Amino acid sequence: MVIATAVPILSLGAMPAAWAVEGGPEPVPDGSISDTFETPLPRGVADSLQRASGQVEVTVRLDQPAIAEVVADGALAEGDVPAEPVQQETRDVVATQQEGFLAEAANLGASEIGRTQLAANVVVVSVDAAQLETLAAIDGVVSVNPLNRYEKHELPQDTASGSLSQAIDYVQARPLHDAGIDGAGVRVAVLDSGIDFTHRNLGGPGTPEVVEECFAGADADVTGVCAEFFGPDAPKVKGGYDFVGDVWPNGDVIPDSNPIDSGPEGGHGTHVADIIAGRSADGAHQGIAPGAELYGVKVCSAVSTSCNGVAILQGLDWSLDPNGDGDISDAVDIVNLSLGSSYGQDQDDSSFAADNLVRAGIVVVASAGNSADRPFIVGSPSSAPGVISVAQTALPDDLQWVLDPSSGDAISNAVHQAWSPVPEGVISAPLARPGDEGGVGCSDEAFAGFPEGSIALIQRGVCNVSDKAVFAQAAGAVAVVIFNNAPGDPPSFSFGSAEPVVVPTFTISQAAGQALVAALGAGEVTITIDPASAIPLTNTMVGTSSRGLTVTGLRAKPDIGAPGAWLSAETQTGTEVTNFGGTSGAAPVVSGVAALVLQKRPDATPAEVKARLLNGADSTNRTPTADGFIATPISRVGAGEVRALPAADAVGVLATAGTGGNVGLGIPSVTRSERFTVDLTLTNTTDERKRYDMAAAFRDETDAASRAVDLQISPRNVTVAAGQSKKVSVRVTIDGSRLQDWPFDSAGAIGDGSALNGPEFDGWITATAGDEELHVGWTVLPRKAAEVTAPKSVKLDRRGEADLTLKNDSRVGTGGVEMFALTGTSERQPKPAAGDPGTPGSNAARIDLAATGVRTVDDVVQFAVATYDRRTVLTYPAEFDVYVDVDEDGTDDYVVYNAEAGGFGLTGQSVVYVYDLATDAASAFYYTDGGFDSSTQILTAPLAALGLEAGQTFSYTVLAIDNYFTGAVTDSIEGQRFTVGGEKYLVPTTTEVGPRDRVTLDVTANPAAGESTQTGLLLLNRSAAKDDFSLVEVRG
């Protein structure tokens, strides 16, 4: 997905000084970043497709709308599907256009890989890269983009799992089963790695003979005895298709009609299917909706964890018309996607197509992702507005372990690793560390001299976590504590060692580990682990579950949570169940509950189904912390943990307009007191009038006490006639004077999503009638903003001086201003047409450069980059590469660029790398200096790292790159020059302008100015409400 290449040499802060810059960006600590990182693109590479060579595979979107784009909202659910001749006419128009395109494409040597005609009008072709420009010029082509790849959202199978019988009871599906509501008649398509229809839990006999015969023909039509368990007359798996085959991505995509879940990396889809609707012949084993019918749509690899982008599109298309007759009236009711890609983008074509299915009337459920509590990392396609995004919560009988040190606070959120034994009694022993660099404990030598009988404290990194435990136990450790090497909650890890681990092993957070290291530095520390102190984790968050808001659109996601670690069917075993976990296991719980809702409420639209799920969720979910528990933010768990009975039984429905999700107000910039109005709809499905009392609540009472955010509902008491709906308005007032200062002006080092818990305001909007309570979540992350403006130009007088007056119109926010030499500008690109890079479904981002600048402060150089559009995070979808020619010989020597520390989705932190083009070595010295929801960044590097010194003139070029989809260079500013310490105009490097105040600065011509392309000043405005930067021309 993300353009990334590993490079073997990386140093961290490896210069002979600390490089701290007063008031500047935070330095990167030694050893805090993995030695695998993304390299910058070679200078001169533009669009990764336009400059590619040889055969490339691309998706081509055409301009005739597909049927899912033109039907009325919820058409399938409401029985408003166009007549078959009308549908056929729409499809014929799309097919004719596709055939015409393919005929012209064939003249260019292109060959068809696949196409979709219902969810979206897309053709996938293989073509010589030299022909791409001509291909894009064919009449009707909207966009040409590379294929996407996604990942299954499964956690290591070594995590503890619960039984599906426990799941049925816990999510309150049992009372519905007892009442005859088991999902009967509801059809669910599982877009995944396929389904093992020979398994006893999924309609098969589970006998070795049948398993062997059916898997032997995995790439052939389902025939003979196998056909008894797959197809319209089968007990459970009623159909499906394999859109990838058995060898991709190690070989070509070879579709076939048999979606059995084969291959060494198979099994994911079988687990998912069993959780949704498994049922053994004797009824002893059941999934959440055991009466539902399943369709296996294979879109994920049998030999890797990857899922094919075009196969997902084809699978969504197939779900609209399983029998392939062109009439979508036989569309499935629910699609489950336990897959995705972190930092979900609206430009993602799977999100675009999934939303089209929702619009047509199909409930689409997708996993939020397993990228942990990192800001805005929730994945696509779950990030699409209409899709139900599912977070993972803990099993009801999970435990959280407490580590009690003799020095310092108790660590109350230690995670036991399921592949190690549980302590049978109290363990109390001294803490000791391995002796290798960083204390990572990756060899026997690292534990030479380790005191036997101690508890080993080891840092994550370099080798497998279970190997660390094996080395420690061999040295006599009685327990192992491994602390994370990135911010966030402590994770669970898979087992990967040759020997079993025989001592209890736990993981703790980076912060907790560093505190223990510090305590050890001051003296001996004893750790006590008492099983009696373990804390139940019922209805709590799992640390690995991805956090919202969405990185594009800033929508309130995930929508809802569910436990995800369940013992479920293991492919190719016939009868066995094994551990399965992650949001991959949480999404099918919600799909199963949605099937129960649809059986009881067959006319419900996708928006109503989503609203019912949210209305009935348990909102008391909590998040473990080092100090105890907090109520879980809406941006982690949505409306709460899913509950089937209230979702299906409720006679009222409280829904937001459009998609039925939670209320998300994004990151509004507040310069005074601001008001927003959100409309909800309250529906009464009974045959008698009902009266509801409306209320708004805060998740954190300290937020309510601050009075910075206020919610007023009108009317507060709503009487809804039988079978009718009424609008309810929620007026949200944000008093900027009561907000804390915005803490995210420099967010490069912030990878821990808990940093958002304080500034984020959230809670629930409720409607209560008797014992029925309906609720949706609400969330807002308000920015106390400044509104600093500057003149477009200033003129030097005869003395070479001018006044620069900065004015702040905000009534509440102080504006920090950073000043740079303006060395280059770029015109704004035209607004993109539908399908162009940057638009929904385009599979391409557009980063539009506005200006670049530079300054030197002490012993560092700082490059400022300003763009016309804001981005939520510093990492994606934009990379900025500054190519530096230090001796101006026409050959670039270094690249200064931003990238996520450690790799895609691993830390959430953005660092600045200095890459030596001659040696392929890279160093990271500083975190990227820039804010959340900002259009500017500052890239800082030591002068010495670039071989620069005072008075030296260098040249540089800035490239803006789509680092999420294509690797395309979407804009550039070239031909810039600057002399170290030789700015043309002298100004302070930084200043502040208070609320409703102005500051006048002296601008002075520098008599010692060196050569440069500087034309004025580039001002970067911190905490800006609207304009993140200003350009000031200096004349005279």
From TrEMBL:
InterPro entries reported in the protein's UniProt record: PA_dom_sf (IPR046450), PA_domain (IPR003137), Peptidase_S8/S53_dom (IPR000209), Peptidase_S8/S53_dom_sf (IPR036852), Peptidase_S8_Asp-AS (IPR023827), Peptidase_S8_Ser-AS (IPR023828), Peptidase_S8_subtilisin-like (IPR050131), Peptidase_S8_subtilisin-rel (IPR015500)
An example Gene Ontology molecular-function term: serine-type endopeptidase activity
Chain ranges passing through the membrane: none
Top-level taxon of origin: Bacteria
Residues making up the signal peptide according to the UniProt record: 1-20
Keyword Hydrolase: yes
PA domain mapped to chain residues: 429-516
Active site: 192, 268, 584
UniProt region (Disordered), positions on chain: 824-843
GO BP of this protein: proteolysis
Pfam families assigned to the protein according to its UniProt record, in alphabetical order: PA (PF02225), Peptidase_S8 (PF00082)
Residue stretches making up the Peptidase S8/S53 domain: 183-620
Keywords: Cell wall, Hydrolase, Protease, Secreted, Serine protease, Signal
Family: Belongs to the peptidase S8 family.
Name the record gives this protein: PA domain-containing protein
